[in-house]
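# nightly structure sweep
# worker-07 picked up a monomer target from the shared queue
# config: single-sequence mode, recycle default, output format = structure tokens
# input follows
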Amino acid sequence: MTDTDDRQHRLILQGIAHRAMLEKGLVPDFPPQALAELDAILGPATQTAEPTHDLRRLLWCSIDNDDSRDLDQLTVAEAMPDGVAKVLVAIADVDALVRKQSALDDHARQNTTSVYTVAETFPMLPEKLSTGLTSLNYESDRLAIVIEMVLAGDGSLQSSDLYQATVRSQAKLAYSSVAAWLESSGPMPHGIGTVKGLDENLRLQDRMAQKLKELRRLHGALDLETIEARPVFDGDRLKDLEADKKNRAKDIIEDFMIAANGVAARYLASKKVPSLRRVVRTPKRWGRIIELAAERGATLPREPDARALEQFLVSAKAADPLHFPDLSLSIIKLLGPGEYAVQLPGDSAAGHFGLAVKDYTHSTAPNRRYPDLVTQRLLKAAAAGQILPYGSDELAALAKHCTEAEDAAKKVERQVTKSAAAILLESRIGEQFDAIVTGAAEKGTWVRLLHPPIEGRLESGFKGMDVGHRLRVQLVRTDVERGYIDFKRVA
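# output follows
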């Protein structure tokens, strides 16, 4: 690349991202009809036909990435006698402004998700909505669907409810600073200190989230920990890819959202309403998971067993925490991808193997995931006793389409990340790296470097290699436009 190209990394990657969107059947730009509808929306939704609770005085806050602006949920907790706590999750009422079969909805239905590439975000809904009028922004009155959960001291669910409400965020917080504060490795974030009682409320949320996690682990939920690569730009020049790891603040949101999604699924089932579930069936390559455990001195049963796998993961993490993310990545690859499926009233649920839950729907991110918007419409109709917006056949078609489109979106994100990685590595041809095998099939073998966390194809020396194997590789070529990074095995 020339010096000029070096200063325009972001522009190069944006061009690659647009082409990748089109190649995968996704639409990078909003059509004129959708933009015309957008122009007619002058403000946030206010009162609905259904009566709503006024919960604006509660200590609601959002916790998300430092740069997140599409805020789908707020959380708050309330201490009750005998160690019991009430946890509330407010979910943005996107349906109040984005109606089914509108042009905005048609675009969202086509892409089914916001696509987050290292160079550019392609939002499912225009930012005027997703980061503005339907986002649960700081100090803004918004309509929401509230999922209420009363949790015992051990994290078990005592009761739950679901209703519409008006909410108002008291603080916009970031995972990194909240986690550092909770873990006593950083100061209290300014947004917490300026709201009376919020510090105590967040510590209660943290305690209850940990209880929820412990309870799910007892039932076999997998404590997996992978390393996600986030771009670091210096102006328009890509400087590095940094590892983005789990932390206590992320756990609060993750565990509350898993619990809320379970409540939403069971609510629909109680109303005898079909639902769009997120399922991860039994692992596709349990045999290889058994082999990985055996290599570390552990024995797993011949048939898939989530509890046994979680016990192995706990011991493996304690024995080698530094390399646990590499083991986690291998297990995730071997578990196989999740998919959307229709759950009809009365049928047994397929469940989510990795989360150790039977009832799980996506409901907590309607600004950026279409299945969540579908679920929101079903929840509102069920709560109001109205005619359902979707029939079983339409839901089945949506389940298939959402699975395929979400897979396409992930491929776009991976492709642009690989192009960014190719930019970072193009001056390092011939260098050697430690790596782990992340994919092994007839179509090829893939490895991920331990540092920087970059994935590429193993073009030679792959015989006998399988997911989870460690090896030493040499970088032989890169192709920024195609996102190709090729290695050969040297040890």
